[in-house]
Write a structure and sequence with these properties.
Elements lengths: L5 E6 L4 H14 L27 E7 L5 H8 L4 H6 L1 H5 L4 E2 L22 H18 L4 E6 L16 H9 L7 H11 L4 E3 L9 H10 L2 E4 L6 H15 L2 E11 L2 H6 L2 H12 L2 H5 L5 E8 L6 E11 L5 E11 H21 L4 E2 L18 H29 L8
Parallel strand pairs: 1-2, 1-4, 2-3, 4-5, 5-6, 6-11, 7-8
Antiparallel strand pairs: 7-9, 9-10
Helix pairs in contact: 1-2, 1-13, 5-7, 6-8, 7-8
Length: 414
Amino acid sequence: MKNHKVGVLFVGLNGATANTSVAGSLAIKRGLMNDRNGMLTESDIFSDLALAQFDQFVFGGWDINHSNAYDAARLNKVLERDLIEDLRDELEEISPWKAIITEHDVDYAKKANNILSVNSMEESVNLLKQDILSFKERHNLDRVVVIYLGSPLKQVKEKGFFHELPLFRKAIQNNDESISSAMLYAYAAIESGCPFVDFTPNVTLKVPAILQLAEEKQVPLAGRDGNTGQTLLKTVLGQMFKIRNLKLTGWYSTNILGNNDGLVLSMPEHRQTKMEDKLGVLEPVLGYNHFSHIVDIHYYPPRGDNKEAWESIDFSGWLGLPMSVKINWLGRDSILAAPLIIDLVRLMEFALRSGEYGIQSQLAIYFKHPLNATARGFYDQYMLLQNYYSGMKRAVLKSANERCANMQPEPLNV
């Protein structure tokens, strides 16, 4: 495994999260940085499992902006300027391929400088598949993982053909406007045998036809909507309230952020699914819904990637007496997300190598709206993750022991 090369392709390569994931990984690979805080795969749960290492990764992907990764890093202003300069040669070699868009993409994307000119959705899929194949052949890669980090899309209306793969294929041929660009990326990735992760609130991996394709191609999937900050706190504190039998009466949240996500989420047509994910986390954790829950998101350009969230939590204790908690969460958006992205790359590559496919529900802890997972509280999700990979380690150890037991000793030359 250690000699294998793993391709990592980002949809939204020049966005702050993908770009930080790339630059940070290169910094660790070169020994410029060695702090791996935030990576669950560096914890004891994953010891003894052969996960891909930083020197095995090769990065690429698609973006509506044609800038190379060095220029993108300077624009995103997440990492220190000196570190970006130290990585300049490697970053300048990473430039995105032309992206695809549909009517569901943010309007300014339609005027971007790095968009594929195509005549049909079928042509888009074929060109995406060719990008993946060429990348794999050019770098002599053993496996490729695709991570969707594009901007949240406009709401997608469900159609009947979403439920049957043959009908979905026909809809692509007919250029049905209900199919989003994210669905086309997922379709192309799965057709190419690549694990696909949706770190956004898009409905892509809830489409049954895409799940059927993953079953057919035996490709692992994971999503949706990365759980990095404010909602993460709700999965922790919500479960604490439940375990302590303290009754939540209200939770008010407000966010300010100034990166591209903040800009897109300031547009009502793009924030709907995001708000649903944020508002939908407490009820399944607590087991009841008779409380007030308000979430606001505000675009505030001076903050850039440094987001801030304020929490005002009201709850009822013994004898019905009211109490409250106030939290001020200050986080660097991409620095919180990037280690989770690298975790998911490692775990999805491991899943493919292990013969796993379909939704990887054991990865619920990484998502606001984890697909196919009933565990919604942080502690429950952590135990799900721990139990799953502890079982994998036991299976690996058992297999190794069996191989050793079946080995015939070489005769001694006396």
